[in-house]
Design a protein that fits this description.
Pfam families: TetR_C_33, TetR_N. The protein is 78% helix and 0% strand.
Length: 196
């Protein structure tokens, strides 16, 4: 039994090492530079061993995307817990989203396809941020008794503005941090006022 446990631990460790190597390569060289060969070289394994764990590069990107959405969801839940007021929750959650995008730029890029092709697979973890945001939007708009479609539209209004600003900043817009922060706060505040 102990040898089975050891083998499982080794497999999980190798899988983690593959993902860590892919992430490190992306941080150092960008996602476009990622290849199965580079990952194998980084962890000093042969490429066929990498294929025992992941069928291709897209499978690795999918796994990293999942990790990103799990991490983002935790950040959003933490931000939401900082207030009881739904409008304040919404503001804090979008600020946490912004912070996540720049504190873990490479994960954000793979999650949302900034400067790269997005992973096409979906799983429940990718829906968690959407569900958190729409739940709070519904609370802010409770007195209007909005339909699910209206709530969805309001979410995508927020997402379009915030994601657009994140993308512009990742590509490089030359604006100062103070200016970007003010634009972000103005956008979030304006949208919240429009839905109250």
């Amino acid at each position: 039994m102990a040898s089975k446990d050891r083998i499982l631990r080794q497999k999980e460790e190798t899988r983690k090492n593959i993902l860590d190597a892919a992430y490190t390569i992306a941080k150092e060289e960008g996602w476009q530079s990622l290849s199965m060969r580079k990952i194998a070289d980084k962890i000093e394994y042969t490429a066929p061993i990498i294929y025992e764990y992941f069928s291709n590069k897209d499978a690795i990107l999918q796994e990293l995307t999942l990790k990103g959405f799990i991490s983002l969801t935790k950040d959003l839940e933490k931000a939401k817990s900082l207030s009881e007021d739904p409008a304040e929750q919404l503001e804090k959650m979008w600020m946490a989203y912004w912070d996540f995008a720049f504190s873990d730029k490479e994960l954000y890029q793979v999650m949302y396809g900034v400067q790269m092709n997005c992973c096409s697979g979906r799983c429940s973890a990718t829906e968690n941020p959407y569900n958190l945001f729409t739940g709070v939007i519904a609370e802010v708009m409770k007195s209007q008794n909005p339909s699910k479609e209206v709530i969805k539209q309001k979410y995508f209004t927020f997402f379009s503005v915030i994601h657009g600003l994140v993308s512009v900043n990742m590509i490089g817009n030359g604006l100062s941090t103070i200016t970007n922060d003010q634009i972000l706060k103005d956008a979030i505040g304006g949208i919240i006022k429009s839905i109250q």
